[in-house]
């Protein structure tokens, strides 16, 4: 096989591996694996958005204390529950990550609320977000703005936040 062909094949393999690594989209901070940080697109005038990911704690109990990003004025940690037909959302001081457990931040459950968006989040965009854990410390992750998959799409709900201002999620 000529050297040029070997170089092309090797370059193709390296590009394929780089693409696979990028699509894996996960981070490790000590004993915590952070998988698939993502947000949904928003529309013009929408001042809030949601941040989602899976946190796998392979070590001692820890807590997610905060998150920050330049795309929003603030990031709040929220829980969401249904009480009959009423969706209740509550801001948390921290998110518990029990030892050896997986915690999913997803629509209709725990999530990061991006408050005071500075511009709409557009599908295909990415933005950095800093996560701060009580024991593991801090890490910057890249959040992918993605359309939800049709099978996993959640209906849009209007809900009242504890601070008495309505917004769409």
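^ structure tokens above, recovered residues below v
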């Amino acid at each position: 096989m000529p050297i040029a062909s070997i170089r092309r094949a090797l370059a193709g393999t390296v590009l394929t591996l780089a693409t696979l690594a990028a699509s894996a989209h996960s981070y490790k901070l000590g004993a915590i694996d952070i998988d698939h940080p993502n947000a949904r697109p928003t529309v013009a005038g929408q001042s809030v958005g949601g941040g989602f990911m899976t946190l796998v704690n392979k070590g001692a109990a820890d807590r997610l204390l905060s998150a920050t990003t330049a795309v929003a004025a603030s990031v709040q940690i929220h829980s969401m529950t249904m009480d009959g037909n009423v969706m209740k959302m509550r801001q948390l001081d921290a998110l518990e990550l029990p030892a050896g457990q997986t915690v999913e931040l997803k629509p209709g459950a725990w999530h990061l609320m991006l408050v005071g968006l500075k511009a709409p989040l557009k599908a295909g965009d990415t933005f950095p977000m800093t996560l701060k854990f009580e024991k593991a410390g801090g890490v910057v992750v890249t959040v992918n703005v993605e359309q939800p998959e049709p099978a996993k799409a959640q209906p849009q709900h209007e809900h009242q936040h504890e601070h008495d201002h309505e917004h769409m999620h």
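The chain is about 15% helix and 50% strand.
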